[in-house]
Amino acid sequence: MRSTGLLASDLLGGFECASQKRRDGIRLDIQASTGHDRHALADYRLLQSHGMMACRDGLRWHRIEARPRRYDWSEVIPMLAAAEASGMQVIWDLLHYGLPNGLDIWSRDFVERFAAFAGAAAQIVKDNSSRVPWYTPINEISFWSWCGGDTGGINPFMRGRGPALKLQLVRAAIAATAAIRTVDPRARIACAEPLIHILPNAPTEVAIVRARQHNAAQFEAIDMLLGKQAPELGGDAGMIDLIGLNFYYNNQWIDEGRTVFLGDWLYRPLADLLVDAAARYEHPLYIAETGTEGVFRPDWLRHICDQVRDARGRGIAVEGICLYPVLSHLGWDDSRLCQNGLFDAHAPDAPRTPFVPLAAEVRAQAARFAAEVPAAAGVIAPE
């Protein structure tokens, strides 16, 4: 079993597009700091030379709407042209943590302005692309609500308000999806939510129930979008076309304790987690983000590919794997050189120097996927 053909390739590349303000007021803009916003065509073709015909990328709301309800698409149109010229299938993030200056995330204005922006973005994409468009309205609602609403790690730097922030982000994602589909009914929506596994910290009923509740909570945002929880928000079963799950080396841990790494006897195989996720939903899945830093990058990718093949062998429709990020970049908080990409890109005009072992593994895995059994007849083919 391969996939149902929703995505143009089994391996995708992810361009980091985080653009939030740090606590010190400095605005991150990873697309700018890596130069991807100016070198999109070359970057897309570089991915394609490694067998990646699809990618995740982003439209930066804070730059497009620098003034309320006034849009500047001058930096977007060249990226759309690059995708069109290269034939790259792009899943566009519309909100990757970065709000326009002065916009209160808790306000009704946030929801209304984001929906208006999403509709306007859908019109620009429709006018400048011949492909069926893909969007992720809000990246990692669950992580954002936890990190920004419970731990104070990112904007809005709150504690004890994670559930309220999750509701607000879901509300905005639903409004944005409705706006997108009003403009372009062809549009398809993919979410991107963390896939985690938490183990109890003691062999007691209280600890076991607590860990079970944590594991269930990771699906709340998806359930809300699909109308399974908080139906008053307006979610429904058609809100998502593709469920994206983000999985990294540190996505398993003991409750209030240590990380459980690959190789630990407590570690749960990714294939098993995918089987569990598929049992909750009738939607196809994909790995929306995965990767690691340093010399183990090719080993991690090989492991993830093997796990996806395992899940597919059990009948799970896993559409693809997005290596994230594909461009190494500066650290969010300390500007260190993160060696986490397929190519180095620590400055806007830096050469795209490949990490050779990972590049070889990407090409090998892409060729292996391409040689495997094609999608069954009658399913959706790539646009």
TrEMBL record:
It comes from the Bacteria. It comes from Sandarakinorhabdus fusca. This is Beta-glucosidase. InterPro entries: GH.
